[in-house]
Specification:
- This protein is an all-alpha fold.
- It has one domain (3-66).
- It contains 5 helices and no strands.
- The protein has helices at 3-16, 19-30, 33-42, 44-50, 55-66.
- α1 packs antiparallel against α2 and α2 packs antiparallel against α3 (33-42).
Length: 67
């Protein structure tokens, strides 16, 4: 994942996820590359549900384009 992908992932997790998801986004942002990989490996559904190709990300990016 690129740095832009991580930004999109964590932004959509913060905006559309619940409390745990938002805290996990904080952890991803604070993690070094090894721990970031460990978190994403442990929660692959986060990439699927909130990553750059997810419906949440597409909706968020569309909203930003319309502003």
């Amino acid at each position: 994942m690129t740095s832009d992908d991580f930004y999109i992932l964590t932004e959509t997790m913060q905006k559309f996820g619940g409390h745990f998801c938002a805290k996990l986004a904080d952890a991803i942002r604070a993690a070094d590359s090894t721990n970031k990989h460990r978190i994403l490996h442990a929660f692959p559904e986060m990439i699927r549900d909130y990553g750059p190709e997810s419906q949440f990300a597409k909706a968020m990016l569309a909203d930003k384009e319309n502003v």
